[in-house]
Amino acid sequence: MMAKVEKSEGVGILAWHPDRLARNSIDGGRIIYAVDTRKIVSLHFPTFWFEPTPQGLFMLQVAFGQSKYYSDNLAENIKRGFRQKLRRGEWLNLAPFGYQNNPLKHNIEPHPTEARIVKLMFEEYAKGTYGYESLAQFLADLGVVSKNRTPLAKFSIKRILTNRAYLGFIKHKGEWFDGKFEPILSPALFEAVQKVLRTKERPRKRKIKHDFPFTGLFRCAECGSMISAQWATGKSGNRYRYYRCSKKRGRCSQPYIQEVELARQIKARLQTISLCDEYTDWMLNKVKEWEREETSSSQSEVQNLSENIKAAEAKIEKLVSTYLDGDIPKEIYLKKKDEILLASAVLKQRKKDFENGRKKWVEPLREWILDTKQADFLAKSDNFHEIKSFAQKIRTNPLVRNKSARFSFSAPFIFAAKRRRILRSAAATRPRGAILSNEEVSICGEGGTRTHKPVSRQQFSKLSG
Q1: What does pTM read for this prediction?
Q2: What gap in Å lies between CA 192 and CA 123, rounded to an integer?
Q3: Most buried pick, 74, 121, 428, 465, via CB within 10 A?
Q4: What confidence score (pLDDT) does residue 454 get?
């Protein structure tokens, strides 16, 4: 707060304290020069009063020097506080989206709802089906908008998708440091999103974009060329999508097949490996039961991971010391440090998985069960793009011959097809609404009668292989 008093010779200035008037040498020098040139005739403070005399100018310079010392010392104390917080792995300022500040711990922690939105956002973008605008609208539907209640800008979306804070890192002056707070994302998911971002930075240019959902899925059984698509107009004027051999390898006699018929054949094939919710829910619960039993992980593996993490931390300390000694340039230092930090994050994620008792077979097995559940849903769906994406995931050797589409399944889905046929006959004898019979339990997993050989945990866990 400051006021000025007009005088005939110049200007008189009233201020609370000299350090509020000038906190750097440039401003202080300008004020002293203004006093020398009689542009300022007096300076009044609550406890000081300077006149344009040699003694007054000397005291003014002393006051300004003290102000600059206070400002410089305050800046150094703030920097020192930042360095201490970085050593302790504490967040430096306001928490980013997905986290919340915890005043008691002087750090940040995942927000109960925003952290789940961040993870879902990364999972959806990793699929490659979203752009910045569509992802912003996806977040807006979940209530994540800007201050103006509009969808987030493209820059904001990209900043979230590239923020390493979700891996447990802290950025300060262009350098990343290891934080002591819980990460929201796994390194694998974060890297998958970065790969999609790099791919979309150089998109392929196409003059015309057609919506042919099943292109790139099948090959011609006669000549081995890919199956392409085109529009055709019927006698009634309606337009239809047809699929045919692209004939890139020479002449081919294979006929056209209409998209509706091709979709019907694919859905019929998916139906053969589908399991209804009643069975998949039972199997998912059984997997959860087995997962809870795996409470004790391999101690030797955890010990090795802990030693590797400590070795990575020692490498960072050695790298910092080398950089401070001036033995390596800053560019090499930052590059090597980022590599070690990312490798350390992967090790910590693996250690966390082992400590939580998550074996490598659990997630693939759960994914296989969910795939059989998804097959049942898509067999009744008309979303051709989702059907194609799922078919690409589970099919092998896809061919089309004489308007007939066929493809094989991997071993886990062949197992599902065999069990499905048996389950249909077993379910027919069970009263409606009753729980699974012993025979159905035997077919789904373990126990039950000897009519069908039960599947042990080890056999069940190998289905995803």
Answers
A1: 0.45
A2: 9
A3: 121
A4: 41
- How far apart, in Å, are the Cα atoms of 322 and each of 48, 67, 169, 332, 401? 50, 37, 22, 11, 66
Q: Give whole-number Cα distances, 351 to 216, 302, 305, 347, 364, in Å.
A: 40, 6, 6, 6, 19
pLDDT for 294: 65
230 DSSP β-pair partners: 242
For residues 452 and 49, give the distance between their C-alpha atoms in angstroms, rounded to a whole number.
Answer: 102
The residues of the chain scoring below 50 in pLDDT are 1-9, 12-14, 16, 446-456, 463-465
pLDDT at position 86 is 80
CA atoms within 13 A of residue 336's CA, in its CB half-sphere: 16
Neighbours of 50 (CB within 10 A): 21
CB 287 within 8 A of CB 445: no
Give pairs for 286-295: CB < 8 Å, separation 24+. 286/444, 286/445, 286/446, 286/460, 287/362, 287/365, 287/366, 287/369, 290/362, 290/457, 290/461, 291/357, 291/358, 291/359, 291/362, 292/357, 294/357, 294/358, 294/359, 294/362, 295/357
Q: What is the pLDDT of residue 417?
A: 81
377's CB contacts (< 8 A; 6+ apart) are none
Query: Could you give the CA distance from residue 320 to residue 314 in angstroms, rounded to a whole number?
Result: 10
